[in-house]
Amino acid sequence: MSTLIDPELIRRYDLPGPRYTSYPTARHFQPGITEAIYREAVMASNEDPIPVDLSLYIHIPFCHRPCFYCGCTRIITRHAPRVTRYLEQLHREIALQGAGIDGDRIVRQLHLGGGTPTYLSDAELESLMLALRRAFTLDPGPEREFGIEVDPRTIDRSRLAHLLALGFNRVSFGIQDLDPLVQRAINRVQDPEHALALLQDAKDLGFASVNADLIYGLPGQTRESFQTLIEAILGAHPGRIALYGYAHLPEQFPFQRQIPSAWLPEPAIRLELFLTALERFTTSGYRLIGMDHFARDGDPLLDAARAGSLQRNFQGYSTYAGLDSIALGLSAISRVGSLYAQNTKDEDDYLASIRAERLPIRMGYRLTADDVIRADVIERIMCHEALDFDAIGKRHRIRFQEYFAPALVRLKTLEDDGLVERSSHGLLLRPAGRILRRVVAAPFDAYLPREGRHGHYSRII
Amino acid sequence: MARSGADSIPAELRQKCSQCSLQELCLPRGLHVHDLERLDSLVLCEGPHHAGDVLVTAGDRFRALYAVRSGSYKSHTIDYEGREQIWGFHLPGELMGLDAIHPEHHLCTLTALDTATVCALPFEKLSEIAGELPKLRSQIFRMLGKSLSEQTTRLREESAEARLAGFLVDLSARLRERGFSERDLHLSMPRRDIANYLHLTAETISRLLARFQSDSLIAVDHREIHLLDLSKLMRRAHREVVET
C-alpha cells in the first residue's frame, strides 16, 4: 500500500490538526453544562420509544510512575489510601449514574482506561465490576465489547485469566516501544519478553480481541530499533495494533519537558517509521482501519470495518455504533444524545462533589443541528473509505452539495493532490487520503477556520 | 365573567375559526361562513405551553372546552396513591375537556407534551350558539362520541402486540385526517406514557417496537417512527385492512 503513497505528499500535509475523537473536539467544551442539564438529557434518552443501548467508560487515573510522553489525566502515586478514597467515590458515582438509566438499556460496550486500570488489585477490579453489575444491565453475550487497558508491568498470566473471569473479552496492552534506550527516555521500562509473552497468553486464554498499542516518533527511536519492534510485534501476532504518533506538546503536558526535543526523531525519520510500519503490517495480513489502527482476520474490528459499522470515539475506534456513552471517573466525557458532558479533572473537586451526591460534571457541549450533520460527515471520513453524499443528505434532510459547497471548494486541492476522488455522488478516499484522514475531514470542520490551525494540535503524521 | 364578551378580548388573543386551517376537523366543520363568524367572537387562544406545562388541573371548575391548535397534549388523572393514568393524547383539531361537561369540573389534568397552543371555547357561550346552529350541535355530539369510543377500544382484550400496533395505526389515521403523512409519526410522548395509556410496561413497548422494526414493519429513529408496512401493521392490530 505504501508503495502508492508519495512521502513528499504526506510531508506537505503534515501540519497540526485535530484527531476528531469527537466533533467538536474537547477543546470547544464550555462551562455551563451542568449536572441538571446532563440529567435532563439522560431522562430524554430514557423516554425514546426504543432507548439506545449503552457504552460505559471508567477512568482509573492512577500510575506508579509517569511515562513522559503521556497526555492523559492521571495521578502518579504509590499511596494506597488515596486510591481507596477515589474508588469509594467512583462506586458512588456508578450508583448515582445507574439510578438515572432505565434498566432495559443494555451495556454493550465497557472500557476501562487510564492512567493504569491494572494499577488496581484483582480484588479492587472485582468489586468495581460488581458495582457496575449492580447499577447497570451488562450484556452477557459474546457480542459484548468489554475491554481494559493493560500495563504489562502490572500483570501476569493469572491476572489476565482473572480479567477474563470478570467478563472482559478484549484486552489492550500498552507496549509503546520495547527498545531499552527508548524505554528509558520515556520512563517506561519493561521487560520485552514478558510483554510479548502476555500477548500470547491473552490469545491462548481466549480473549476475543488482543491489541498492542505502539507509538512512533518517541525519543531515541531509530529506523533499526523500530524495525526490531515491528518484527517482534508481528511475531506475537495480536488481532489488532494501534499505531499512534507521539505528540510533543510540552507547554500542555509538563512531563513531556523531560523529553529533550533533540532526542526526537526528525520529521523525515518520523515519517519513515510510520511508512515502514504501514508497509510491514499491511503486507503481513493486517488491514489499515481508520487512520491509525491495524486489524487482521478474525478480529471484530476488521469485521466492523468491512460491515461499515466502525465507530470513532474517545478511545479510538470501536465496533458498535449509535450507543449513548456514559463515562465515569476523573475527566471522563459522556455523550448522551447530542450532549457532551465532562467530569472535573480536579481530584479534590471530584471527591467532594460525589460525597455531596452530585455528579461532578463541569464542562461540555450541546451539539447544534449543524454540529450533528458535520459530526456525522467527519466520523464517516475518519472510519470509512467513502462518503456517500446522498446517504448523508437523506439522513439529515439536506442537499449535501449545497450545504457543503464551501467545504467542497476547500477539498479541491486535496483532489488535485490525489488524496480523494470526487464523483457527483460522493467522495472516495485514496490511499494517501486514508493516511491523512484528518486532512480530508478538516474542510468539514466549522470551528477550524475560526481558531487557526496551529499550536494546540498534534502533527498529522 | 371577564372572558365572556368578545369586546373585552385583546385582539392578539382572538382566534378566528373562519381563518383556521383546522376548521374542517374541529368544531366549525360544515358551518356557513356567517355562522363561523359567531364562533370567531368567542374563541380565545392560550399558550404556547411547553412540554410538561399544565393547561387544566383535575378539579378545576369547568369554564371552557379546549381545541388543540398546535402541538399535542395528554389528559391524565392521578389516583390517591399517586399513580398516573393516561386517558388520551390529543392532536391539533381535537377537543379536550369534554369530561368536565357533566360534573362541571375537570376530571382530567391536561398537560402539554411539546410546544403547544389551544383555543379555549367558553362553554356557556358555545352552548348558546349551538342552540341556534344544528350543524355545530351535531359536530359537538360527534366529537363527544369519538372521545367515548376511544376509551372503549383502548383496552380491548387484546395481546400487547395488537394493542401497540393499534395505537400506531390509530395515530396514523388521525394524522392522515389532518393532511399529514400517514407514514411518518412523531411520538411527542415519552415511552412510559404510551405504556401507561396501553396498560403495558415501558420495556414491553420498546421490545415490541424493536420487534416491529426487525420485522420491517416500521423504522425507528429516536422519536420518529416511519411506518413501512401499514397493512401488515393493521393485521397485527387485528384491524380490517383499509387500502389507502
Write the layout of secondary structure elements.
The complex is a heterodimer of chains A (461) and B (244).
Chain A: H1 7-13, E1 30-31, H2 35-46, E2 54-60, E3 62-63, E4 75-76, H3 80-99, E5 106-114, H4 122-135, E6 137-138, E7 145-150, H5 157-166, E8 170-176, H6 180-185, H7 192-205, E9 209-216, H8 223-236, E10 240-245, H9 267-282, E11 286-289, E12 293-296, H10 300-307, E13 311-313, E14 316-318, E15 324-328, E16 333-336, E17 339-343, H11 347-355, E18 361-366, H12 369-383, E19 386-388, H13 389-396, H14 400-403, H15 405-410, H16 412-416, E20 420-422, E21 426-429, H17 431-435, H18 437-441, H19 448-451
Parallel strand pairs in A: 2-5, 2-15, 3-4, 5-6, 5-7, 7-8, 8-9, 9-10
Antiparallel strand pairs in A: 1-18, 10-12, 11-12, 13-14, 16-17, 17-18, 19-21, 20-21
Helix pairs in contact in A: 3-4, 3-11, 4-5, 5-7, 8-9
Chain B: H1 33-40, E1 44-49, E2 54-56, E3 64-70, E4 73-78, E5 84-90, E6 95-96, E7 109-112, E8 116-122, H2 123-132, H3 134-154, H4 160-177, E9 184-186, H5 191-198, H6 202-214, E10 218-221, E11 224-227, H7 230-236
Helix pairs in contact in B: 2-3, 4-7, 5-6
Indicate the proportion of strand residues of chain B.
Answer: 15-25%
Which word captures the global form of chain A? globular
CATH superfamily assignment of the largest domain in chain B?
Jelly Rolls
**Name of the CATH first level of the largest domain in chain B:** Mainly Beta
Largest interface (CB < 8 Å):
A-B, 9 and 17 residues
Global Rg of chain B? 19 Å
Strand elements of chain A, count: 21
Q: Give the assembly state of these chains.
A: heterodimer
Radius of gyration of chain A: 21 Å
The CATH architecture name of the largest domain in chain A reads 2-Layer Sandwich
As a percent range, the share of strand residues of chain A is 15-25%
Overall outline of chain B: globular
Give the overall average pLDDT of chain A: 93
